Automatic annotation (TrEMBL):
Its main location: membrane. It is a lipid-anchor. InterPro entries: ARM-like (IPR011989), ARM-type_fold (IPR016024), EFR3-like_ARM (IPR049152), EFR3_Homologs (IPR051851). GO terms for biological process: protein localization to plasma membrane. Keywords: Cell membrane, Lipoprotein, Membrane, Palmitate. This is Protein EFR3 homolog A. Belongs to the EFR3 family. It is found in: Cell membrane.
Length: 732
């Protein structure tokens, strides 16, 4: 029951007190006395200078009723306050607001969930009121702390716990709406507030049963979900908060996300982390995307000594962020992204190499195997991120990144690379070469340059074709695939996939253009370097079928994209030289590899003969292939690369009709106007200083054999002269 006073005393009381007292009925179940509430509202609007006193008196009554657990009268007092707030918008409302916030704080401090929810609802209504003038002194520190605490409610009753958490989230949303648009209320963005608000929202977002893993932006939750589901309400609040963030306070809002994910160990598995950063990237303004990417990179650096799966989780989050940022503005962080990723790629390879060189007892080996596979997860995640980021860059930036990555590739005997490999050892260095080339392959995918010199400048081509990158069959495969990405400007590579004898090349519908002057100049300057790489690559003893397929594709792409009449002659000379090397076998290759080279030459000459469409040349190639099909199928790609192919014991006793003959080719091409004088000069690869650094046998030995062939000798005897020289060498 409210305190009643006698008529004499009542007449002496201030009018505002009498009006306030009259709104409270004798029985709180009757609710607010509406008629008297209208009188109080009219009085407050007419005499706004009294609002301060009205508010103070209402606060006094409410505090007393809260202590005495008179919930009914507390509800009536808050209803009255809400109505007064909505009705009064004058400047005098400022002191009244202080009384109102004091009453809300009292309710939030009470231990009764019902009153906490009541206080929150009143605060949310107040937050939606646009005040005429800003407040210079009002702070919401208490409300941030209290609402954040409510978000973590652990009440034993599930319904009550959910109700309190929803109230806490709505309260935080109210604080955000009340402060973020007011330049004088910038304190909400301070770290001490963000460190409470953001983790509270993330804590409730974790309760989503199925985290959305879509590539596209998460859909906006429905109105019902916002009000009833703490997880959806928290996510909506976080979006609203981030959507209001500006350049100066973006980092303060994002950093607590990392702290929360670290504390709760949510990087492995990282589904929730990915979901969080999708929400972040789609909520912030597009021009601030690079801030988030920089923060992820910084956190990756901070956690560089964590387990591989944690690092992989962070990198996968970076990939998702980059995927979204690439659609808008990435900003000035391009080189920083690649530099950081390549640094962590080196660290991962270093950790992997260190583990492999570590303890040798059986139990340790099991752990090493597990770590090794985990590090590969990190490496694959880095390469995938580099590839996706690079493929979304404009061409001018992509060419810079290609040069940047190539500059990191370790090349033995030189110090031009900028990646520290001092701790890697030979195995680690080989591994980092493979990883960097895989990254380069991803970046060059889809790259289209108008001229080949733009795609393959000398500063890029020289290290790419270095002998140091030919020591391993996988390295050679990657180098060739990178070249294919840059050479194939008309998307013909898919049509050439797989080494085979093509019956009719016209059926492939090869796309090509007339060779431009810049491409011709490129081949005059760099052609011998390309031929040398292909020639030596064919003679490697660890080649597998894929190597031969890629070498065949290289020859075909050069023919399509870069070949004029002079280049065609050089390519034919190269093919004949490869055939001769397989017959002579001064590198002591196995029979499989010798037959593989013969099959490669057959496939290429079949292709080039049809591309230049010289009937006599096509006839000679077809005849040799036909004889091989009947007498030596192991010289054809369809047979030699098939399982359990029967191999010959030697090649010296084969009929010369099984080989492509220089004199026949020269005769057929000369009749069609080609300048065939150079066909009589055997192809000899250039000798470079880097050959001394390579493990392979010096190609000077090959030169010493071939230079004995006189330029004016009969081309028809070339192969047999080489065979005799080889046999004499063996007899000696």
């Amino acid at each position: 029951m409210p305190t009643r006073v006698c008529c004499c005393c009542s007449a002496l009381r201030p009018r505002y007190k009498r009006l306030v007292d009259n709104i409270f009925p004798e029985d709180p179940k009757d609710g607010l006395v509406k008629a008297d509430m209208e009188k109080l509202t009219f009085y407050a609007v007419s005499a706004p200078e009294k609002l301060d006193r009205i508010g103070s008196y209402l606060a006094e009554r409410l505090s007393r009723d809260v202590v005495r657990h008179r919930s009914g009268y507390v509800l009536i007092a808050m209803e009255a306050l809400d109505q007064l707030l909505m009705a009064c918008h004058s400047q005098s409302i400022k002191p009244f607001v202080e009384s109102f916030l004091h009453m809300v704080a009292k309710l939030l401090e009470s231990g009764e969930p019902k009153l906490q929810v009541l206080g929150t609802n009143s605060f949310v209504k107040f937050a939606n009121i646009e005040e005429d003038t800003p407040s210079y002194h009002r702070r919401y520190d208490f409300f941030v702390s209290r609402f954040s605490a409510m978000c973590h409610s652990c009440d034993s009753d599930p319904e009550t716990r959910t109700e309190i958490r929803i109230a806490g989230i709505r309260g935080i949303q109210g604080v955000v709406r009340k402060t973020v648009n007011d330049e004088l209320q910038a304190t909400i963005w301070e770290p001490q507030h963000m460190d409470k608000i953001v983790p509270s929202l993330l804590f409730n977002m974790q309760k989503i049963e199925e985290v959305d893993s879509r590539i596209g932006p998460p859909p906006s939750p429905s109105a019902a979900d916002k009000e009833e589901n703490p997880a959806m309400l928290a996510e909506n609040c976080l979006r609203e908060l981030l959507g209001r963030a500006t350049f100066g306070n973006m980092n303060n809002a994002v950093r607590p996300v990392f702290a929360h994910l670290d504390h709760h160990r949510l990087w492995d598995p990282n589904e929730f982390a990915v979901h969080c950063f999708k929400v972040i990237m789609y909520s912030i303004q597009a021009q601030y995307s690079h801030h988030v990417i920089q923060e992820i990179l910084g956190h990756l650096d901070a956690r560089k000594k964590d387990s591989p799966r944690v690092r992989a989780g962070i990198i996968q989050v970076l990939l998702e962020a980059v995927a979204i940022a690439a659609k808008g503005s990435i900003g000035p962080t391009v080189l920083e992204v690649f530099n950081t990723l390549l640094k962590h790629l080196r660290l991962s390879v270093e950790f992997e190499a260190r583990d492999l060189q570590g303890e040798s007892i059986s139990s340790a080996n099991l752990n090493t195997s597990s770590k090794d596979s985990d590090e590969k997860i990190v490496q694959n995640a880095i390469i995938q991120t580099i590839g996706f980021f690079g493929s979304n860059l404009p061409d001018y930036q992509r060419s810079e990144i290609m040069m940047f990555i190539m500059g990191k590739v370790p090349v033995f005997g030189t110090s031009t690379h900028t990646l520290d490999i001092s701790q890697l050892g030979d195995l680690g260095t080989r591994r980092i070469q493979i990883m960097l080339l895989r990254s380069l392959l991803m970046v060059t995918s889809g790259y289209k340059a108008k001229t080949i010199v733009t795609a393959l400048p000398g500063s890029f081509l020289d290290p790419l074709l270095s002998p140091s990158l030919m020591e391993d069959y996988e390295l050679r495969q990657l180098v060739l695939e990178v070249m294919h990405n840059l050479m194939d400007r008309h998307d013909n590579r898919a049509k050439l996939r797989g080494i085979r004898i093509i019956p009719d090349v016209a059926d492939l519908k090869i796309k090509r253009e007339k060779i431009c002057r810049q491409d011709t100049s490129f081949m005059k300057k760099n052609g011998q370097q390309l031929y040398r790489h292909i020639y030596l690559g064919c003679k490697e003893e660890d080649n597998v079928q894929k190597n031969y397929e890629l070498l065949y594709t290289s020859l075909a792409l050069i023919t399509i994209e870069l070949a004029n009449e002079e280049v065609v002659i050089d390519l034919i000379r190269l093919a004949i030289a490869l055939q001769d090397s397989a017959i002579i076998n001064e590198d002591n290759l196995s029979m499989f590899h010798r037959c593989g080279i013969m099959a490669l030459v057959a496939a290429y000459l079949n292709f080039v003969s049809q591309m230049i469409a010289v009937p006599a040349f096509c006839q000679h190639v077809s005849k040799v292939i036909e004889i091989r099909t009947m007498e030596a199928p192991y010289f054809l790609p369809e047979h030699i690369f098939r399982d359990k192919c029967m191999l010959p014991k030697s090649l010296e006793k084969h009929d010369k009709n099984l080989y492509f003959l220089t004199n026949k080719i020269a005769e057929s091409l000369g009749g069609s106007g080609y300048s065939v004088e150079r066909l009589s000069v055997p192809y000899v690869p250039q000798v470079t200083d880097e050959d001394r650094l390579s493990r392979r046998k010096s190609i000077v030995d090959t030169v010493s054999i071939q230079v004995d062939i006189l330029p004016n000798s009969n081309p028809s005897d070339d192969v047999w002269r080489l065979c005799l020289l080889k046999l004499n060498h063996q007899l000696d």
